Amino acid sequence: MEKDGKLEKIRHSLSHLMSMAVQELYPQVGLGVGPAIDDGFYQDYDLPETISPEILPRLEKRMREMIKENIEFKQHDVNYDEAYKFYRHDPYKTGFIDDLKATGEKKVSFYKSGWFDNLCAGPHIGSTKEINPKAFKLDRIAGAYWRGDEKNKMLTRIYGLSLETKEE
Questions:
Q1: What's the average pLDDT block by block, 10 residues per block, for the chain (168 residues)?
Q2: Which domains does the chain show, CATH number per domain?
């Protein structure tokens, strides 16, 4: 892939697809951070129950189905009132909104992909057709404290690997 960050955009977009798959199973899930990392991506979730690695193939399968749907990633800005209303049930996202407000940001960036709308600065690919469905794998589940502070709630972190080819 080109050196313009396309693989990083794919990885970040995969974290959104994973969140879509998780939210289909747990509609009121709390969404923590979900960045691209050196060999893939991860996303933190506040889930209503403990999950085990046996769920990973099910989530992967759903993500591959979504890739075939050619879902577009579209950025749009909203004002603070809209952002708070949208995330009234999610203390993690409202915490991020508070942070943006404190830094003086004028608008809140969201990315919409299909039915999923998410507070996110991006960047993302244009659509899922840019993802090789065989070049990612959900790898493991771990615990992660919200904002890295052991005094905060332990969230569920799901890691995924994403490279340029299946062989890698």
A1: 74 97 95 93 96 97 97 97 95 96 95 96 95 95 94 96 79
A2: 6-162 (3.30.980.10)
